[in-house]
Amino acid sequence: MMLKGRESLIRLIGRRRRFLRCRSLITTSVPQIGSKEDKDEVSTESGNGDEVWVDCPVCGKKVRGEEPVINSHLDKCLARGTKRKLSQCTLFQLKFCTRPKVTASSIESDLTRTEFSSSANDHNIYDLASEMRNSDGSNNKDESSSSSVSLTLTTSTCNIFTRNRVNRVENLDGLLEFDDERKLLSGEKSMQIVGLEGFPQHQISDDRIDNITSSPLSLSKNRTPTCVEPLEDDDNSKILLDTFIVGRKFADDTELIIGAMVMLSRDFENVKDSNAIKVLTKDTGHSKELGFIPRELAQYVSPLIDNFQLRFEGHITSIPQHPHAVVPIQIYSSGIASFGEKDSSSLQEFNSFRINAVCAAEFSKTHPPISAKYQQNLLLLLKEVLKINAHLFTEGEKTLLRPWFRTASISYAEICDYEEAVKGLSEAECVTLFKSIDKLQIGDLKEVLDVLNVGELRDLLCSLNKSHKKIVQNSDHGTRKQDYVARVLGAYGSGLCPNLPSMILGKTGSCIRISASAESVFWRAERLFFLNGEQDLSAFLLVDLGIVKYPAYNCIFTDQIFPDRSDLLSYEEAIEVAQVMDESLDENNNELVSRCVEISASHVSSFVEEDISSHFGSMAAFLSCFSASWVYSKVILLGVSFLEHERRYKDAIDLLKLLLLKFKSDRRRGYWTLRLSIDLEHVGCLDESLEVAEKGLLDSWVRAGSIVALQRRVLRLGKPPRRWKTPSFSNSVNRKIVEVHVQGRPVNCKTGVKNVFYGEDGERCGVEELALEYYAGEGGFWQGVHTESGIWLTIFGLLMWDIIFADVPNVFRTKFQTAPLDLETDSFYEVRRGLVESLLDKIEHGMAEELLIMSWESHVGTACRGVKWDKHSLSELRAAVTCIGGPCLASICRNLAQDYRSWSSGMPDLLLWRFHDDYRGEAKLVEVKGPRDRLSEQQRAWLLFLMDCGFNVEVCKVSHAPV
Questions:
Q1: Is-contact 792 805, C-beta < 8 A?
Q2: Which of 161, 210, 585, 905 is the 20 to 30 Å CA partner of 883?
Q3: What is the DSSP letter of 39?
Q4: What is the per-residue burial (b if ≥16 Cβ within 10 Å, else e) of 183-207?
Q5: CA-CA distance, 913 to 783, in Å (whole number)?
Q6: CB atoms within 10 A of CB 76
Q7: d(Cα 452, Cα 272) in Å, to the nearest integer?
Q8: Order of strands across the sheet with 52-55?
Q9: How far, in Å, CA of 252 to CA of 275, rounded?
Q10: Pairing of strands 953-960, 921-929
Q11: Whole-angstrom Cα distance, residue 556 to residue 522?
Q12: Residue 916 has what pLDDT?
């Protein structure tokens, strides 16, 4: 059974972290979350295991961890105005391979390093970080940190991190398999790699993140710029293009020769790219596939081939050293373009494609379509994170990878010498390199075993079977990877196989492991960039491959989400507690679940709601979810559900009262109040249960289904002698909803199993499909769809598109959002009230269909919260809005705009419509219920609201036909 709040908590956590700093705190005493100390810098001196020391963030000296000592030391440092000198090399300053000479046969060398520099007049990152540590606002600068800095960024470093994060592209059609592990990033010391000028301070005024048009990572619609307007008299006899062959690892294994002839051929079967063009060997016999030309160039060359019958051929200009690296080629048109009946428009179109193809080829010379995109994507993420959140990183944070990797598997074209790269990282204490058994600890064996595949594990077991036959035969005989790992570890645990580590290393070869702190910092960077736990660097690749298209909007910043590092650390620790809670539920560790709830309740108890308003100011409504207290409240809510499942109602009541006491302005108050009233009834406190329900109805934060549920509880509990007066809402909430009864032939009649019936065609179907068949026939010849909330959210998203993505400060913080941050809060409507009401007026006066068509044609395929492009066709949506009518549709859209969170679920199952003539129609909304189902309070609230709006609504109850 899924506990209430579990799914929400899982979405909040996102990808689980392998290393949790707070786990030891959870198993001991309640931590003091929210302290100003940097939890990352806490260390214990070897001389005294009980005495905790921390690094002073101002001068860098070790200070005892007692709060009075720390405060006293900080006061002295800040009074002196001194700061710590930063002289250690950054991770990205290390050169791990010799830069190859730039030659025609080594085109990838152009990207083997990227240099950034900042002049002495600019604020470099070191200066900024130091200024932010000075609370008195002093601008003292250390000469060593303000001098000119020139950094060399090698692809050897970046690709060790980034390329292993995205393990491999499975095929050219974009079927990706992403590694589940956290990777990369450096702390404040590596901030210099961005080379930002005019770095923003704590408050950023009207700052916008614009698309980087000169980068292949640009999220703009046209990533390759158009050069010039075409001229009708341009010579079109020849087109000469210098480009590359990409996708070599997915092509035939063909030996390449400089000067070998090639030709282009359209790939019409490529489902991911309708413009795909293959590069083939130009042989008299069977041509072999060498790869593809870049997507950016193919979009212009493909119409030249398709529409104007041009043929392209060319030759290989140089051979790269790595077999999967891009191959430079020169191609040219052979033959003359065919225009059919020549006219000015076709000639202009031809010239446009031709000139844009030349521009795309020129653009790719400086931005080769190689796997350096992974590195560039990472740098873009770093740049944006550091641009806004530089004050949240410390110099001591390093970026490393937690999992193990076999060095034999690290083979990429961008890394000229991976062994030297690994050695450099190891010397910099970024990774641990294991080549011998002497450095391998027993606790590391399982992680090392995880890098072996099933076949290698099977071979290892066979070797053990020969030397330790008795041990292995007594083991379980599962065939999954974890079964093999368990058997190997079991053999080692018996103590009769002491040479097992050597045997394992014989299989894996040398291994590297990223330090535990790496995941923490990179997790932080990704979290700050995406502001959620579900997205990571793979989002860049989905955009690069054209799989996902994000909407266009402006990111305008006026405030920080985390003004102080301590706020961020408190938030991160709260998320870690949430992860431990989630893991404990998976493991049925009730003791640890209770401990997480206890910790969360302790922190919420000390929380004052006014802190949120002072922390976020005017943004409190939609940014409060980035506070530690908000995360802890979700853990507590899940704890309430857990306690109710355990029938520990008194403990659940205490938690619910705590939530209602501490969070006065929260949209979840309705559910909390309802559960409190129910749990009080469970323990026999009927008078208090009724009082809680009555007070809840006066709470402006109690919305939608929670109102209906509380009203019905008041009517049920508030009978004489408890209450003598009938509430005014009695008639409204007890209104009768029209019911229709349909009988069907069931496939099964088991309790607890989903209802399945035989349809008119004899095929199996659910109750909704059976109801659609009824309404299409004897029920009134209705057309319709089983949609629930889907079609309504799609219509809302399309009609409100320009308002959803309007220029509103702070609601868009990254280019990977599908909705503003305030969509599910009251702020959405309040800030855009004028825009919303103006649009609703147009909808009410019959312009909905026109607005819908325009929005569909302008944005089809673009990701937007609630819009399901593949679920409903434009014709279905047009029929729906036409038959619903302007006034009713405007009422629904206003309801969603004012409170999207409360009303985005629970809509009726079926939307039905029928036309009376070409311009008029009617609609009906139907909630379908099976033999043992009943209306939820949210569904009842929707039906009552729709009745108030003038909709024709029904409840269709499907029952078993008599035998």
A1: no
A2: 905
A3: G
A4: bbbbbbbbbbbbbbeebbeeebeee
A5: 5
A6: 12
A7: 32
A8: 43-44, 52-55, 62-64
A9: 21
A10: parallel
A11: 25
A12: 83
Euclidean distance between CA atoms 88 and 432, whole angstroms: 20
First to last CA, the chain: 34
Q: How far apart are CA 690 and CA 693, in angstroms?
A: 5
Most confident range, picked from 392-406, 540-554, 571-585: 571-585
DSSP 846: I
Other beta carbons less than 10 A from residue 482's beta carbon:
12
Q: Could you identify the residue written with the tokens 């409360």?
A: 902
- Are 770 and 779 a contacting pair, CB within 8 Å? no
What contacts 24+ positions apart, CB below 8 Å, involve 916-922? 919/882, 921/879, 921/882, 921/883, 922/883, 922/952
Residue 584: which pLDDT band, with cuts at 50, 70 and 90?
A: very high
Contact at 8 Å (CB) between 203 and 560? yes
- Cα–Cα distance between 810 and 557 in angstroms, integer? 5
Tokens 């200066």, located at residue: 127
Alpha-carbon dihedral 169, 172, 173, 176, rounded to 10 degrees: 0
Tell me the one-letter amino acid at 314. G
Q: Are 96 and 417 in contact (CB under 8 A)?
A: yes
Which three-class secondary structure state does DSSP give residue 880? Answer: helix
The SS3 of residue 892 is helix
Helices and strands, counts by H and E, the chain: 37, 25
Tens of pLDDT, residues 301-317: 999 998 888 999 999 99
d(CA 159, CA 415): 7
Tell me which of 462-471, 575-584, 851-860 is least confident: 462-471
State the residue for tokens 């530089």.
Answer: 390
For the record, the structure tokens of 756 come out as 């399945």
- Sequence-ordered list of residues with C-beta below 8 angstroms from that of 376, at least 6 positions apart, any chain: 215, 216, 217
Inter-residue contact 551 to 211 (CB < 8 Å): no
Q: How far apart are CA 863 and CA 844, in angstroms?
A: 27
The torsion region of residue 663 among left (phi > 0), alpha (psi -120 to 50) and beta comes to: beta
What Rg do the C-alpha atoms of the chain give, in angstroms? 32
What is the bridge-based pairing of β-strands 327-334 and 311-316? antiparallel
DSSP 474-499: TS----SHHHHHHHHHHHHHTTS-TT
Contact between 554 and 817 under an 8 Å Cβ cutoff? The reply is: no
Longest dimension (CA), the chain: 100
Q: Round to whole Å and give the CA distance between 745 and 756.
A: 9
Query: Each residue of 653-701: pLDDT tens digit?
Result: 999 999 999 998 888 999 999 999 999 999 999 999 999 999 999 999 9
Residue-by-residue DSSP string for 795-806? HHHHHTHHHHTS
Verdict on whether the full-model pTM lies above 0.70: no
Q: How far is 78 from 56, CA to CA, in rounded Å? A: 11
Q: What is the DSSP string of 208-232?
A: E----TTSTT--SS-SS---S---T
Which ranges constitute the DSSP H helices of 81-218?
125-133, 143-146, 155-165
Distances from the Cα of 48 to the Cαs of 43, 53, 847, in angstroms?
11, 10, 76
Handedness of CA 70, 75, 76, 77 (dihedral sign): positive
User: CB neighbours of 890 closer than 8 A, spacing ≥ 6?
Assistant: 840, 841, 843, 844
Mean pLDDT of 721-740: 91
Asked if 260 and 317 touch (Cβ cutoff 8 Å), the reply is no
Of residues 839 and 345, more confidence is placed in 839
User: What token pair was written down for 866?
Assistant: 């609630």
Interval 515-560: pLDDT, tens: 666 677 788 889 999 999 999 888 998 888 788 999 999 999 888 8
- Read off the pLDDT of residues 871-926 as tens digits, 9 standing for 90 and up: 999 999 999 999 999 999 999 999 999 999 999 999 999 999 998 876 788 999 99
Cross-strand partners of 25: none
